[in-house]
Records
---
Amino acid sequence: MKLQHFELEVLLAMIRERRETYSVPLVLALEKQTGRRVAQAAVFIALSRLEAKGLVASRLDEPDGGRVRRYFKITRTGMAAAKEHHHEHARLWRGLGRLLRADKG
Amino acid sequence: MRWILRLLVNETDRRTIEADLAELHELRRRQNGQREADRWLRRQHLLYPLHLLADRLRAAAIRRVTAMPNLWRDLSYSLRTLARTPALAATIIMTVGVGLGATTGMMSVVRAVLLNPLPYADPDNLFWIYTDNPPFKFRFSVVDYRALEADHPAFSTVAAYQSRTVTLTQGDVAERATAKSVTGSYFPLLGQSALVGRLFDPSDDTPGDRIAVLTEGYWSRRFGGDRSVLGRTLTVDGESYTIVGVLQKSTGPLENNVSLFTPARWPPPRRKGPFNTMAIGRLRPGVSPAAAREPLRATNAALFPIWKSSYQDEKATWGLQELKARVVGQTGSTLWLVLGAVACVLLIACANAVNLLVARALDRRREWAIRGALGASHGRLLQHLAVESAVLAAASAGLGLGVAILAINAVRSYGEGYIPRLNEVQLSLPVVAWLGALAAVSGALMFTGGLLSVVRGSHRQMDQTLRSGGRSATVGRGPRRIRHALVATEFALATPLLVAALLVLSSLDRLQHVSVGIDPTHILTAEISLPSARYPEETNRRALWERLRDRVSKLPGVEAVSLADSRPPSDAGNLNNFDLEDHPTPPGGNQPLSTWVAVSPDFFRTVGLPLERGRLLDAQSLRDNVIVVDRAWADRFFPGQEGLGRRLHEGGCSTCPWISVIGVVPTVKWTGLEAADEGTVYLPFVDFPNGFVMLRAAGDPARLSAELRAAVRDVDPGLALANVATGTELVSESLATPRYLSVLVGMFAVAAMFLSVVGIYGVMAYFVQQHTREIGIRLALGGAPALVHRMIVMQGLRLVAAGVAVGVPAAFMTVRFLRTVLFEVGAADFAMIVGVPAGLLLIAAAACAGPGRRAANMAPADVLRET
């Protein structure tokens, strides 16, 4: 499954949350991890795209008089996609750590 | 934001987004305070629609790529349909393309000259430090710079330079070049490095070997980029200098036309003056220009009493100005004006293109209806329209690119000397991106025009169109209103542009009629500098000038020869302050200033300046301490009184001997044709190191330039002649800027008017075509053809009048903006603002007369039979 860099970041942030979540905690978590400001619009769009790809699923929570929220949770396909990315990266990095450590420059 | 969001996302998503944003806002308010949180929220509101739009466009692009076959089909269909109406396609591509190209060309000039930072290290903190004596801003004297160098708390570094024209000699060949003597801190301050060898550093400020650094341009031109140039010698004004380095390639304004740099080892000054030292400084981080002003004033105040004997103007202080603003000078308003004019033409061209496309789209309603009936979805029809607009926009952009390159080249070759930083003007990637963006906007406008007129056709309307055979149905109100609004807009834009063009032209006309004060037709002038090494003493220089004058006066065809340190009409040597015996300046007051021109006794005969009162300068004038003044000077200081015999102290030097006025001559322009006559003082030219030879020829003065050059070489082969120009050329040069401006703005105004007239003609012709049946009925029922004719013309004029009514206030605003570039704006110019709308209405009436006549001349029977 082809994922854009930011979509992957959002997906990984969702895995870290370990439960269903909505955009606000994700924005805060991403800001903490990346050290830069994250636009809420970017997270909203990434979540919409991930949902369209079937990697996350959402439900609407509309309490009486409370704030309306869309909760997202990662699907099985989403988990599989994250693992696939992890393996692919691990393959790409294999053996490079030693070389990078050796390069003092 | 709500309404934009409502367009882009569904209601539930919109509510979720707003709730999430509110929650984040609350969190940020607690963390960073209310102001920061509000700022964040405003930013999110601004960014949200942009993010969503970008996402939609991306998704649409991906979908389109997958639907490529349709796209190709639409592309080829669009090309075919455009080829069937070549006149229409060519008109749109030509007008929009030229508009795009000219706008892009001007944008690249504005970007390079006004917007780009100077190509030096940390350019925003570079400042010019000057002597501030309102309304004048002088350079520094060496005294000022030495004081600044010793005490500059607000600046991290200060540097200074003096520019001079030198004679570079290589073997028998002498050439004139610009050299700069710079302090050791100059190159480090600008952050420049050497391409070959080294640059100067503060250790070069102390006396030592004569050394020089070449600019990359001079090094390539003169030495063919030879890296072994280091250590070679170069003769500058008769003295040998060893080349120690070549400066990196630079397009900066401080290196423009400069050939070499030498260290500034200025001798300790004996007086405060002359003011020919350009001081620059880099502000310390965190120090604002306003905060830097106070320490500058304090240093100057401490300096004043020390040098009071040679400079008495206590009101003069020190100021600072951004170096970029100093370099750009007055050019800013001119460039923005031209860019505004070009942008107006582009807008009019776009409006015209949309107008033409709307007209065509209306004609094609039957075709669209058939396609719709055969099952083409709205999406497919839209795609076709979009492809067609894209083809037109792309072709216009292609043409625009060519025009932009031509425009940039034209500005670079004709703007030399009038526009600063020209060598930085180029077709860069951001400028091409700007062209692309403008073309995209033009394409979007064309698409919108077509869209509004075609897609309004719902299936019900399509049905009607099919049933009516696409013949008799008149256009719905919507498209007609669009076309009318577009034509009115064209006239609203053309009005201020025409007013601007006429104002600039009338200003040029007034300037051309300003009298220079002399007859320039038989005058030839050339500049000569005497190398200080070979002419160190006053006596050497005096002897050389006399020899030169004798030699040139013997040339056949020369009627008179003289020397001067300035050239009319806009090349004055000095602006000097002085103190009049009859009107002494009170202590602490500003002394009067006027132009001082040094001339040899024959000057008045050479330029044909008659004596009004008293006598002229002669060989004894210097010893006698006498001067001649012009009529403007006499009238300024002694209106209605005798000017002869008045006495003054030059430069306010109270211990110097009095200088007396012995003659009055008519006024001559020395500081520009547009400058007010503030009076000129003529003093004797004797032993100056630089000067202009001026001669009066019996015939065409240009023919004497070769002989003059040979005569100078005869006197001293080491002397180089520079800036040879006839009097007529000098006058013409001084008018070059207003002339270019009027040609440019005039061209754009004519284009704007032409396009607007084409627009109104098209609309009215279409109106007649669409209302053929009604007109036929009207005529058949006995309506007078003259009335029909008038009805059509009046219909068109109503549109034009609406546009012009909007354009007139804009024209008044234009005049306010133009004041800085105009010469003597008067009541007649305001009359012009009224005249332009009247003229436009007349021209529009003539354009509407064609369709009007066609309507009036219809044969009612034929019309009714055909429709």
Note: Chain B touches chain A at residues 12-13, 15-17, 19-24, 27, 44, 47-48, 51-52, 55 (CB under 8 Å).
---
Amino acid sequence: MSALLKTEALTVRFGGILANADISIGVEEGEILGLIGPNGAGKSTLFNLVAGTYRPTSGRIRFEGRDITRLPPAVRCKLGIARTFQVVKSFETMSVLENVVVGALVRHVSTRAAREEAYRVLDVTGLMRRAEANARDLTPPEKRRLEVARALATQPKLLLLDEVLTGLTPAEAQKGVELVRKIRQLGVTVVMVEHVMEVVMPLVDRAIVLDLGRVLVEGAPQAVVRDPKVIQAYLGDRYHA
Amino acid sequence: MLEVQSLTTAYEGLIAISEISISVGASEIVAVVGANGAGKSTLLKTIAGMERPASGRILFEGVDIAGAPTHRVNALGIALVPEGRRLFPRLAVRDNLRLGSYLHRRKRDREAPLDMVFKLFPRLAERLDQRAETLSGGEQQMLSIGRALMTRPRLLMLDEPSQGIMPKLVDEILDSVRTIREAGTTVLIVEQRLAETLEIADRAYVLQTGRVVMSGPAKEVAGNADVRRAYLGI
């Protein structure tokens, strides 16, 4: 395995606040990496830096060894980085199929080829029988799937999932877990921000915990949640088990 | 003072809180704790009128305010210090505070709470002309609390005031919550950091994925080993 993505001392400051401070992490090809931490820890900021929505104040981001720090989001997508949004951003008045075709057009010039790709993705994500439905008529779990499908249609090497399992019933969340595993089997590396620990911990190979904009701990998921530093970050500095 | 009965709120069908019942007595500090995504913010936003509940009742001093618009809820005496502080970043500290009091008609009423705010957070008095965005995270939180106090609330609701703030300032902010209560304001505080919050609270409710899984005197909740499971799944 080699590092697909690397961040080097990534720092971003918003006014008086250090949202990310000196973050150096690597994402190995083929892994599922969990990004966890209390609210306000800087998880979404890190996602936005990697996807290109924000520019860092200092530091670098490398993707397959190439410096992408200054590249706009669309170029990063073309290079193979796709993301989902916590609040789904589907095209509401378009059909499910059309939504996914938009993603596929990143790789295909002809709409026919894009449509074929879109059908493949709909099959993987379990949305085939909803292909002709309007995006806005989907159930909430289906909307989450569509969000994943749109990203997947861009044929990413690295997929960033922002809370795709949050707010689902345990049964729905379990289906989401299976989908993430399937995506990894397709050769896609996954980084996911997720809150529901019982769901996410068995799924990820490795977890990185952020707190106050910095990397607090990284390691195997079961070790990480038992780390006293992590327990204190979640439950308070004066928490004693 | 506040009686939340079987409150359910959903976002486009995703249930965020489910049949939550809590009560807050006058002059109490009540804490609602739980991990990310447990529904704590949704609970406060629904009380504040920023989200409409799917079902349930919210009685404030006997009046059902469920679904009432935010400005009305605020005029009745409830103020929210929102998650992430939500200041006006380009406006000066002074103007951010002023915006908290604009519902009051008389100038005297608008300016009266300023003294208390400055006594509580002397740093704000020193930085009146500074833009809000140039403050540190802790100072921004103080300003957000100050702005809420400018509405002269009887019930102050705080949504994760410790978020993104250095441990030393967390204590300072939680101390101020105690002072606010001593000045006669009831407090409902939502927090992730359980240990520090339960030191200042009288009673606590623990939320896990949208439901109340535990409640009781703060000391009992703090000592309960099941709380960690609700947070970290271990």
Note: Chain B has a mean pLDDT of 92.
